[in-house]
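This part of the workshop introduces the protein records we will be handling. A record pairs a protein's sequence with a compact description of its fold. Backbone structure tokens are a discrete shorthand for how the chain folds in space. The question running through the whole workshop is how a given chain folds. The record below serves as our worked example for the rest of this section.
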Amino acid sequence: MTTAATRHSDRRVSPVFVGILAVTAVTGWATWSGFAAQPGVAVFLFVTAAWIVSLCLHEYAHARTALHSGDISVGAKGYLTLNPLKYTHALLSIVLPVIFVIMGGIGLPGGAVFIERGRIRGRWRHSLISAAGPLTNVLFALVCTAPFWLHALDGVPQDFRFALAFLALLQVTAAILNFLPVPGLDGYGVIEPWLSYNVKRQVEPFAPFGLLFVFALLWVPSVNNVFFDAIDSILRGMGIEDFDRYCGQELYRFWQGTNEFCQVSR
């Protein structure tokens, strides 16, 4: 084939993404080795860079699945290069999720690759394209929590353990929020192909406000408590205790000062 979507340059990994990976590796090493003069700064940079990597992989999964499902336009749009600057809404996919991590410690769902759905045939393919992104967050969460549920924490420095726990929290929250069957989120994209035309037409006007609706609900104390209780239960099931998750978030927010409680290992 000679389409633009199949050119090698359209699939070459972007230097921007390589740079983000490099920051993740260097700051991860600094967190592991204790090399950084301020551990909190190293953890902040490591978790933030790793979070951006996961956002890029989330969008890449959507695009790659769409490519194999029939939308050959994703290559020409730059979605296969893992370059976040190529996304339709870089602000929504990268900047805003990072701000939410800093402010509230929650994995905000992104949404930035434009899939030409008319090129794709078959409801299962449409559903799989939508599911591919949050499934990437699930996989990322499994990788982050592997040392915990494999009981392989011997020799893992405390600060690095805390950072992994907080990063896992972000991945789990992102996966759950993305899988909600709310218009505008991936979860709705999974079920949308199976809905009737009339239902889809009635729901469509609400799609731009779906994420705002979800976060408005999370401001309700009772809903917020139920949501984070569920998150904590999932993390405990994956081997992460509240202590690790809490101290990871505290260490990430280095500008708030040192938390003496987290400096004492259990």
